[in-house]
Structure formats: structure tokens, C-alpha cells
Specification:
Layout lengths: L5 H27 L1 H11 L9 H29 L6 H30 L2 H5 L10 H49 L2
Helix pairs in contact: 1-2, 1-3, 1-4, 3-4, 3-6, 4-6
Length: 186
């Protein structure tokens, strides 16, 4: 039977990883477009005026992403516990969560890079923005990166499951080889 106490620990780890990812992610976002926070996210998350800075952006990132860790963890942590080779199930769950996080980072990074190619003044001018936004191009680029990062989190579930399945296959092959080696020496 899997170690069920690993489930809440794994979910807590997933939430912590996702929240930290969001806080760091929004540091880059703040660098690219403070207006994205000043005219949008600080209002959306009711961030007090004295935190309308990088610290507030980090807090927004945490609030906006910790729950994604819970969502991703619900799929990956139990899957890691039921696969063969339970001795290392928490380590495998951690690896799957980091794979999901890396997928979100990769997808968000690719989207940010693509935004520098596809979002220019003509594209940004065709969209609607909150009143007062001056640098619409930067605002749109950050928005594209944010949306893609969530998509990357969802894709990360599948990447994490592939990581777990590959680990289970490797464990199964190794166990089979050990069995054959032991049986052949009798």
C-alpha cells in the first residue's frame, strides 16, 4: 500500500513550488511591464498601495499560482505513489512536480520570446487595455507570457506523467534484469 502521508506532503510541496515560481515569474514580469501590475494585477488582487512595487508583484505571483500547484499535484503525487518501486515514491513525485514546473517555465519562456516577434505597436494598438497604460507593447507581451505559463502548467501535468511512466518502465526493466540474473545463477 502506498504511503498515504506522502499525499499531503506532496501537495504542500506542489503548492510551495508553484507559489515560488509565480513570485519569481512576476519579478521578470515587473521588470518588463510595471503597468501590468499597476493598472491590472494590483487591482485584481486588492494589493495595498504601499506594496505597489516588486514585493507586491511577488505577492501577486504567489497568490496567482499556488493553487496551480495543488491542481497539478492532485494528478502527479498520487500517480507517483501507485507506480512500482514505492521506496522512492516521494522522490519521484518531486521529480514529476519539477518536470511540470520546468514545462511551465519553458512554455512561458517560448511565449515571451515569441511575443518579441509577434507583438509590435500595430498589434498592441488593436487590443483594448486598461485606461492609463502607456507601454501597450510591453503590457501585451507580459500578458502573453502569463497566459502561456498557465498553459505550460497544464501541459506540465502530462510531462510529469510521462516522467513517472518512464521511471516506472526503467524500474520494471531493472527489476526484470535482477530477477533474470538471480534466476540464471541457480
Amino acid at each position: 500500500m502506498p504511503r498515504l502521508y506522502h499525499v499531503p506532503l506532496g501537495l504542500l510541496l506542489a503548492c510551495l513550488l508553484a507559489g515560488c515560481y509565480g513570485a519569481l515569474h512576476d519579478q521578470l514580469s515587473w521588470t518588463l511591464s510595471p503597468e501590468y501590475f499597476l493598472d491590472n494585477k494590483f487591482i485584481q488582487f486588492a494589493i495595498p498601495a504601499h506594496l505597489h512595487n516588486r514585493l507586491g508583484a511577488a505577492w501577486v505571483g504567489w497568490l496567482a499560482t499556488w493553487w496551480m500547484g495543488l491542481f497539478v499535484g492532485v494528478f502527479l503525487v498520487p500517480a507517483a505513489l501507485v507506480l512500482p518501486g514505492r521506496q522512492h515514491s516521494f522522490r519521484r513525485a518531486t521529480g514529476a512536480l519539477l518536470t511540470a514546473l520546468g514545462t511551465a517555465l519553458l512554455v512561458g519562456g517560448v511565449a515571451l520570446a515569441a511575443s518579441f516577434v509577434v507583438i509590435g505597436p500595430e498589434i498592441a494598438g488593436a487590443r483594448s487595455f486598461p485606461a492609463g497604460v502607456v507601454d501597450k507593447v510591453a503590457y501585451a507581451r507580459v500578458g502573453m507570457m502569463h497566459n502561456a505559463s498557465y498553459m505550460g502548467g497544464f501541459l506540465g501535468i502530462f510531462a510529469g506523467l510521462v516522467y513517472l511512466l518512464l521511471g516506472a518502465l526503467t524500474h520494471s526493466r531493472a527489476a526484470s534484469q535482477r530477477y533474470c540474473a538471480t534466476s540464471g545463477s541457480l
